[in-house]
Amino acid sequence: MTLTSASARSVKGEKTRSLILEKAIELFRQRGYDETTMRMIAEHAGVALGNAYYYFASKEHLVQGLYEQLEAEQMDASTAVLAREKSFKNRLAGAILAELTVLEPYHRLCAALFKHAADPASPLSPFGPASEPIRNRVITSYARLVEGAHDTIPQDLKVDLPQLLWLFKMGVVLFWIHDRSFGRNRTYHLVSRSVDIIATLVSLMSMPIFVPVRKKLLKLMQGLKANPS
Asked: Which residue intervals of the chain bear CATH 1.10.357.10?
């Protein structure tokens, strides 16, 4: 096989994979996750069932593909915010709001997937091993958010703050999933108020009087990392 033909097959394979994922997401949104089968997805994509399973071993793998797609779009959206904003508060608020904007068209689907993602044993859990690569990329992006802020943030806090921000973001997403207010206004109000509190606490953590509290917080984080179960 020549290099050219190998490259052509690789490009064709990636197009087929993208098509299957695209059609799966369409069906998940139209029919619901539980009602959609791999056979339906294969038929909708115009490929053999075996070909669909070749690229995605299960519906859960397709959802992981959706997670990856949304994560990439969210990172692109937040990059523009981080290039523009310099304060920690504005960088965090802007990034979270940009990420929610990307998620909004998938609100109904995310709500349907939540009952699966809430199961710790499910491969769809954002806290599980299957989601670790995506989780690590998001935490890395929050590390850039912290490092690029002009605020004074203690160096030891910078190590664990990105993970804490990821946990905060997951809490916001959970609230957003259950938010039925017009335009998701309650979620945006929550982000505004909570980010203000977080920014204030981060600012206070650099003061000598709060050093003991900071040390206890970081010790707690280290304990959670050492004993994830």
From this structure: 66-226
What are the tokens at 132? Answer: 């670790």
**Structural contact between residues 163 and 139, judged by C-beta atoms closer than 8 angstroms:** yes
Architecture of domain 6-57: Orthogonal Bundle (1.10)
Angle between the N-to-C axes of helices 59-84 and 88-103, in degrees from 0 to 180, rounded to the nearest 10? 140
Establish how many alpha carbons lie within 13 A of residue 193's alpha carbon, considering only the half-sphere containing its beta carbon.
Answer: 7
Cα–Cα distance between 195 and 91 in angstroms, integer?
A: 10
CA nearest to 81, candidates 102, 52, 63? 102
Q: Looking at residue 222, what is its pLDDT?
A: 82
Superfamily per CATH, domain 66-226? Tetracycline Repressor, domain 2 (1.10.357.10)
Sign of CA dihedral 153, 197, 167, 72: negative
pLDDT at 227: 52
The pLDDT, as a whole number, for residue 229 is 47
Among all chains, which residue has been given the structure tokens 């910078």? 158
pLDDT at 13: 84
Low-confidence ranges of the chain (pLDDT < 50): 1, 3, 229
pLDDT number for residue 3: 47
**DSSP calls for 152-221:** ---HHHHHHHHHHHHHHHHHHHHHHHH--SGGGHHHHHHHHHHHHHHHHHHHHTTSGGGHHHHHHHHHHH
pLDDT of residue 14: 87
